[in-house]
Write a structure and sequence with these properties.
With 712 residues, the protein is an all-beta fold. 2% of the residues lie in helices and 49% in strands. The protein is built from 2 helices and 53 strands. The chain is elongated and about 150 Å long. It starts with 12 loop residues before the first strand and ends with a strand.
């Protein structure tokens, strides 16, 4: 058994992990891995702890078997005035009784296959309802014969009583609510349009509530016999009702699909076979009583996002299979206080908290503060939680299906539990610093943490051992090796079953090994690729660069012309952008290379900052126009064009100051840096003339030449 040290209440527990191995030579900025949400904690492996929908980790509740029953389902539970507990079962229709620590004894073996409902009367009598022949059985007086409410009643889905001793029955398949007065006479309170009324409850003022299949209606019948629809749920089946101490009504739904009509997911209608099939026999795991509370490593995630304080007054149609608990106050206003993708079969109150029993995964949820927070508190090795019965001590008896059993959910918490986090990938080999967490730690409770590291994504023999258990927030020290991957596990413990620590968040600081920036390429525009449309005095240079550590980077540029002995710095001030508008008018024309130097100094101290350089491919700077030679040739001229760096793209001439006339090379193409053009003048008047020639290269540079000649 691990020994935990007791901790203070409402104090953030902070402890440091000092690395005992060699430190990383160059380091980057400190990063934080933080987990503080239900989604983050849900990725971890939980043992005997639960996570609420507000992201609080608590110890799970203890669950103990209560004797052994030979049953497929325990449909209902009741506690008589004497303290004896009764269990109605299927699929053999037997009813059992348990007194104190004695084993279960069978008190009724029905001709029906299902004993569906139970109720304990104020005078000490206990009644049961059956199906599929709809019998009423008084269990406390075996001499009393079974009776049938009406020939049309086949299923007694639920029973309730009021303080005066009247008995109420929700029935099917004609959807009727019946009342049996203290004299034993039955009468119809409500004859609904539905096939089945599945549940019934009585309010403190004597009003009777019933939930239906088909449309998911909640009916209210006042003591004077007036009937109204109290609420129309978005789901098509209201499965369970519970009246709270303040008179508020809780209603749980169990519809396999939202809306529509029909029996939904109920206990089954029409025949015993349909009833058996409705609860998905075989979907649950076999009971393992030695596992208290939560199935190790398989605690469920919280049921979706948390509701706003006090629930939500706006009914929300949900996806298929999503059900809810609604609370209808004494003012008649409904509020949704819980939602889960599960079938809600049973409700119970434990102290000031609402318990919600569900299927098909046998999860019991706890709802606090009218929907401010909810959490799974136990996952049973049974498919359905079909009935729950509270006690004054705070314990809750649980009737299950798949297989049938009676368990006790105690009011106390398990002694210890843990959460093993998912694996965090720091992307690079890292050293790890402070681990901190926030927790509400009551007296006799504690939280402790361990950490381990590795360099492969799944823990194996190459991973480090777990660090020593860290419990003292003032002086906790541990040694964990460098690694790329890290994992923690947190332990929660209590020495007081009435208290549990609450872990709210956990953080781990780490620093990755610093790697130099990376420069993928340098892009310099090629002036030779232009068409000479205009001369560009600035060259738009850019480069692709990134830092493996996501450090901030700055850049510097240097220039070198072919033939120069060394590099010349191009920028005095470091650049923060990955581009530079370079004024090339003050640079001699020629063939150049550009060098980009990147550094992560903004994110690292000088002694650990790293740099990376990349030199561009050769490129041209050209701001010289073509040279032009003009020589007379007969009745015309011969023009020779030459450019040192880029091809010539166009030329024109003007005679005697006239208009410019486009001219073309003798071979018809401007495709080289050297071109020859012959110009013949027709009908030239005798005398002296002047011809001016201009030419443009691909970089947009303009050159001119001229010649004076005399025409014969």
């Amino acid at each position: 058994m691990i020994d935990f040290a007791a901790s203070r209440r409402l104090v953030p527990l902070v402890l440091s992990l000092f690395v005992a191995l060699a430190t990383i030579a160059s380091a980057s900025k400190v990063e934080t891995w933080r987990q503080d949400s239900p989604a983050a904690f849900a990725k971890g492996k939980k043992e005997r702890v639960v996570v609420s929908d507000t992201g609080r980790i608590r110890l799970g509740r203890m669950v103990e078997p209560v004797g052994a029953l030979d049953a497929a389902h325990v449909w209902d539970l009741a506690r008589a005035k004497s303290g004896a507990v009764y269990a109605a079962t299927g699929s053999s229709g037997k009813i059992y009784r348990k007194t104190g620590d004695d084993p279960w004894t069978m008190v009724h073996d029905s001709d029906d296959s299902q004993a569906l409902s139970l109720v304990a009367m104020p005078d000490g009598r206990v009644f049961a309802g059956t199906g599929p022949s709809g019998k009423i059985v008084e269990l406390t007086d075996p001499k009393t014969p079974t009776s049938q409410i009406d020939a049309a009643v086949k299923y007694i889905w639920d029973l309730a009583t009021d303080p005066a001793g009247n008995l109420y029955a929700a029935t099917g398949p004609t959807g009727q609510l019946w009342k049996r007065d203290v004299a034993g006479k039955w009468s119809i309170l409500l004859d609904s349009k539905h096939s089945h009324l599945l549940c019934v409850a009585v309010g403190p003022d004597g009003s009777v509530f019933a939930g239906s299949d088909g449309e998911g209606l909640i009916y209210k019948v006042t003591p004077d016999g007036k009937t109204s629809v109290l609420y129309d749920a978005p789901q098509n089946e209201v499965r369970c009702l519970l009246v709270g101490p303040d008179g508020g009504l809780y209603a749980g739904t169990a519809a396999e699909s939202v809306g529509g009509s029909g029996g939904g997911s109920g206990r089954g209608f029409g025949s015993p076979m349909a009833m058996e099939g409705a609860v998905a026999p075989g979907s649950g795991a076999i009971l393992t009583a030695q596992v208290p509370g939560v199935r190790p490593g398989d605690a469920p995630a919280p049921p979706g996002v948390g509701n706003p304080p006090g629930g939500t007054a706006t009914p929300r149609p949900g996806p298929p299979g999503e059900n809810a608990v609604y609370r209808i106050g004494t003012d008649g206003a409904p509020r949704e206080i819980f939602r889960a993708k599960a079938l809600i079969y049973a409700l119970a109150l434990s102290e000031d908290r609402l318990l919600v029993g569900t299927g098909p995964e046998g999860i019991i949820y706890e709802v606090r503060d009218l929907g401010r927070e909810s959490a799974p508190i136990a996952r049973l090795d049974h498919g359905q939680v079909l009935a729950m019965l509270g006690s004054e001590k705070g314990d809750v008896l649980v009737g299950t299906g798949d297989p049938g059993a009676v368990l006790k959910l105690t009011s106390g918490y398990v002694e210890s539990g843990s959460i093993l986090s998912d694996i965090h990938d720091t992307k690079l080999v890292s050293k790890f610093g402070a681990v901190s967490w926030k927790a509400e730690v009551a007296e006799k409770t504690s939280v402790a943490v361990q950490v381990r590291t590795g360099n492969v994504g799944e823990p194996d023999g190459t991973w480090s051992n777990w660090s020593p258990l860290l419990t003292d927030p003032a002086s906790a020290k541990a040694s964990v090796p460098l690694g790329r991957f890290v994992q923690y596990r947190a332990f929660l413990k209590t020495a007081d079953p009435a208290s549990t620590p609450e872990l709210r968040s956990i953080s781990l600081l780490y620093q990755t090994a610093n790697l130099p920036p990376e420069i993928a390429r340098i892009v310099v525009p090629d002036p030779a690729a232009g068409e000479g449309a205009q001369r560009a005095p600035r060259l738009a240079v850019r480069w692709d660069a990134n830092d493996p550590n996501d450090d901030e980077m700055t850049f510097s540029l240097a220039l070198r012309k072919d033939g120069w002995p060394d590099w010349v710095k191009l920028t005095e001030t470091p650049l923060t952008e990955k581009a530079f508008a370079w004024d090339v008018t003050a640079i001699p024309a020629g063939h150049y290379r550009l060098r980009v130097t990147a550094t992560d100094r903004p994110s690292n101290p000088p002694e650990t900052a790293l740099t990376r350089e990349l030199t561009s491919d050769p490129f041209i700077i050209d701001h010289l126009g073509p040279s032009i030679g003009v020589a007379t040739a007969g009745p015309g001229v011969k023009v020779t064009l030459k450019d040192d760096f880029t091809r010539i793209v166009k030329a024109a001439y003007a005679l005697d100051g006239g208009e410019w006339v486009a001219i073309f090379p003798d071979d018809g193409l401007f495709d080289t840096r050297d071109e020859t053009i012959s110009i013949a003048f027709k009908d030239l008047k005798p005398g002296t003339h002047v011809v001016t020639v201009r030419a443009t290269d691909a970089a947009g540079n303009l050159g001119t030449g001229d010649a004076v000649f005399k025409a014969p």
